[in-house]
């Protein structure tokens, strides 16, 4: 007959396993699209945007990725990736644009085009990182329509959700981020979020935010399993002690 302690342990482990499975399934679904993960989103901050290229077009290898910058951004600095060459595409503005420091510009970077030195196989992934200065526009969503060109075919990740529409319902959504309120200052000109530097360093690696999420999930599940085993051993010892009395 199963003891109450064992039943509780098995029930807890089953619930944890089910939750982990749902999280893993959601993570897998989310990674199916070309997406962007910012290391920060606060208004007027400098941010690293990590674009994930999870697969090719159908079964074809990726040869080029063209990221279009929203009108709110004037420029972007590509981070070096040894697997790709990067090129800035500029556009002439219809009229000069005045900047916060009082100066004006007549051109802006409209697109960053990455070309693969060797086509990225369909079953491999890579990340492309841009450094940008976010505008002072909390609450604004910035969309980055991205054209993924493959050896055969291409995918235009440019669909933008309408008001009230779930972006996950789109077949080929454009990568996007939403700007948040400016971060509080610690009095020394630095933001109060000490984790920023760690996140920034991690986001330029090949693993990016996805790897951090998977690692955290794995550690949580492992902790639940170890806790369940410890509870089982404790119950067994108490049962053995009671039988000797």
From TrEMBL:
Q: Which PROSITE patterns match?
A: TAT
| Keywords tagged on the record | Membrane, Signal, Transmembrane, Transmembrane helix
InterPro entries in the cross-refs = TAT_signal, YcnI-copper_dom, YcnI-like_sf
Domain of life, source organism: Bacteria
Q: Where are the transmembrane segments?
A: 214-232
Q: What is this protein called?
A: Nuclear export factor GLE1
Q: Where is the YncI copper-binding domain?
A: 33-179
What residue stretch is flagged as signal peptide? 1-32
Species name: Pseudarthrobacter chlorophenolicus (strain ATCC 700700 / DSM 12829 / CIP 107037 / JCM 12360 / KCTC 9906 / NCIMB 13794 / A6)
